[in-house]
C-alpha cells in the first residue's frame, strides 16, 4: 500500500526530500496534494505545507500562507519563497539543527546576518535565487563545511571577496549567474577542489584571470555565457580535462588562443554562438579530435561574422567530420569575403 506522509496545511508548491531535484520534488508534491484531496483533507491556504518522513520534516511556505513562529525540531527541508522579505532575524534557523536544504528564493533579501547559518551546520543546499543581495557578510559560512550547493543567481552582487567562500570545502555547485560582476578576485575558487558546476553566466565580466580555474580539478560544466568577454586565453581551461559542457555564447569574443581547448577530450557540448569571431588559429579544432566522438550533445558556432578564407581550413575540415553534431547550420554563415558572403559555413567547408 502506498504510504502518504501526513500533511498539515497546503500550498501551491511543495517540499522535497533532501537531495532531490527541485522540479521533480514539486511535481511529486502536486501528486501528493491530489491524493490528499481525494482522501478528504481540506486545504488550508493560510498554512505552510508540512510533510513528515523518516528523514524528518519538510516545510514549504509561499503566500498567502502565514509564516510560523517556529519550525519542527526535525526539519530537514525548508522553503520560504515569494514573500518579498527584506530581512531575516539572525535566529531564524534556531532550533532546527538538522536542516539540510534551505530555499529562500524570490524574496527581496538585502542582507544576511553573519550568524544566520550558525544553527544549521549540516546544511547542504542553500538557494538564494532572485533576491537583492549586494554582498555576503564575512563569516556567513564559518560552520557550513557540509554545504555542496550554493545558488546566488539573480541578485545584485557587483563584487566578490574570496574570503566570503573559503570555508566551503565541499562545494560542488556554485551559481553566481545573473548578477553584476565585472571582475573576480584572485583565489576565488582556490579551495574548491571538488567543484563540478560553475555558473558565471549573464554578468558583466570582460576578462578572466588565467588561474581562475586552477583550484577545481573535476569541473564538468562551465557557464560563461552572456558576459562581455573579448578573448579566450590558452591557460583558462588547461586544468579541466573532465570538462563536458562549455558555454561561451553571447559574449564579445573576437580571439580564441590556439591552445584554448587543448586537453578537453571529454567535451560533450561547446557553444560559441553570437560572438565576434571572424577566424581562429590553426590547430584549435584538431585539439578536440578530428572526429569529436565525445561531443555527443553538439556544438554551436552560429551568429559569428566568419571570414571564409584559407585561414579557416582547419575549421572546415573539422566541421565536415562533425557536421551531424552541428546546431543552427543555417545561421552559421560567412560574412566575407564578398564572393562568399551569406553562404553557409558548412557548404563552403564541403566545397573542393
From TrEMBL:
Domain of life of the native organism: Eukaryota
InterPro entries linked: Cys-rich_flank_reg_C, Leu-rich_rpt, Leu-rich_rpt_typical-subtyp, LRR_dom_sf, LRR_TM_domain-containing
UniProt domain LRRCT: residue ranges: 304-352
Signal peptide: 1-40
GO cellular component, one term: plasma membrane
Keywords from the UniProt entry: Leucine-rich repeat, Repeat, Signal
Protein name: Leucine-rich alpha-2-glycoprotein isoform X2
Gene: LRG1
Amino acid at each position: 500500500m502506498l504510504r502518504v506522509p501526513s500533511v498539515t496545511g497546503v500550498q501551491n508548491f511543495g517540499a522535497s526530500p533532501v537531495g532531490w531535484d527541485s522540479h521533480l520534488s514539486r511535481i511529486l508534491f502536486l501528486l501528493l496534494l491530489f491524493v490528499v484531496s481525494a482522501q478528504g483533507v481540506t486545504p488550508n491556504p493560510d498554512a505552510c505545507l508540512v510533510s513528515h518522513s523518516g528523514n524528518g520534516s519538510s516545510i514549504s511556505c509561499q503566500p498567502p500562507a502565514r509564516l510560523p513562529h517556529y519550525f519542527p525540531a526535525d526539519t530537514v527541508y525548508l522553503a520560504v519563497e515569494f514573500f518579498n522579505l527584506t530581512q531575516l532575524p539572525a535566529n531564524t534557523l534556531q532550533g532546527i539543527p538538522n536542516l539540510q536544504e534551505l530555499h529562500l528564493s524570490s524574496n527581496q533579501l538585502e542582507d544576511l546576518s553573519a550568524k544566520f547559518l550558525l544553527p544549521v551546520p549540516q546544511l547542504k543546499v542553500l538557494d538564494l535565487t532572485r533576491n537583492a543581495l549586494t554582498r555576503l557578510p564575512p563569516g556567513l559560512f564559518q560552520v557550513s563545511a557540509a554545504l555542496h550547493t550554493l545558488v546566488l543567481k539573480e541578485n545584485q552582487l557587483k563584487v566578490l571577496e574570496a574570503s566570503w567562500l573559503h570555508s566551503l570545502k565541499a562545494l560542488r555547485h556554485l551559481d553566481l549567474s545573473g548578477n553584476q560582476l565585472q571582475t573576480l578576485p584572485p583565489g576565488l575558487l582556490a579551495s574548491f577542489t571538488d567543484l563540478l558546476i560553475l555558473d558565471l553566466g549573464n554578468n558583466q565580466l570582460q576578462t578572466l584571470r588565467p588561474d581562475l580555474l586552477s583550484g577545481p580539478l573535476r569541473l564538468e560544466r562551465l557557464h560563461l555565457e552572456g558576459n562581455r568577454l573579448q578573448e579566450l586565453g590558452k591557460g583558462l581551461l588547461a586544468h579541466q580535462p573532465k570538462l563536458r559542457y562549455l558555454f561561451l555564447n553571447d559574449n564579445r569574443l573576437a580571439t580564441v588562443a590556439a591552445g584554448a581547448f587543448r586537453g578537453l577530450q571529454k567535451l560533450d557540448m561547446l557553444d560559441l554562438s553570437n560572438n565576434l569571431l571572424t577566424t581562429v588559429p590553426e590547430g584549435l579544432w584538431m585539439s578536440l579530435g578530428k572526429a569529436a566522438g565525445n561531443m555527443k550533445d553538439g556544438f554551436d558556432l552560429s551568429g559569428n561574422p566568419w571570414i571564409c578564407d584559407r585561414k579557416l581550413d582547419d575549421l572546415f575540415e573539422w566541421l565536415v567530420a562533425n557536421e551531424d553534431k552541428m546546431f543552427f547550420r543555417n545561421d552559421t554563415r560567412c560574412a566575407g569575403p564578398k564572393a562568399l558572403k551569406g553562404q553557409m559555413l558548412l557548404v563552403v567547408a564541403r566545397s573542393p
